[in-house]
Amino acid sequence: MIRKKMAMVGAAGVGKTSLVSRVLAVAGDVPFILLVNKSDLEAAWQVTAQRLDALRDAGWDIVATSAKQGQGVEEAFERLARRMLQ
């Protein structure tokens, strides 16, 4: 059986260390990518570009998505599939 796990991180969990801890606690050591939703409302994000860059520098795969505009969703699935096959 395939178990789906999703970590929802609000404004309190955007620090690099706390985010890593929360994701690993929920998902374990499995392939994942971080989706930053509502890319059409980027000005309202509570995570800074600097924090996202720090996570990228630490090896995280991050995709900005917008379900409303359909942006980044297919790319996210493709990236995750590639990570799962590695």
Structure, described:
Helix content is 40%, strand content 7%. The chain has 86 residues and is mainly α. It has a domain at 30-85. It has a two-stranded parallel ribbon. The longest helix is centred in the C-terminal third of the chain and has 13 residues, at 73-85. The radius of gyration is 13 Å and the shape is globular. The two termini are 21 Å apart. Residues 1-14 have low confidence and may be disordered.
Index terms:
86 residues; mainly alpha; 3 helices; 40% helix; globular; disordered N terminus
| Oligomeric state of the chains present here | single chain
Give a count of the beta strands, DSSP E runs of length 2 or more. Answer: 2
Q: How large is the radius of gyration?
A: 13 Å
Number of helices: 3
Strand order of the largest sheet: 1-2
Taking the sheet with the most strands, its summary is: 2 strands, parallel
- Shape descriptor reads globular
Mean pLDDT: 74
How far apart the termini lie comes to 21 Å
Beta-strand residue fraction: 5-15%
Task: Give the fraction of residues assigned to helices.
Answer: 25-40%
Q: Summarize the helix and strand pattern as letters.
A: HEHEH
Instruction: Catalogue the unreliable spans.
Output: 1-14
Helix/strand-derived class?
mainly alpha
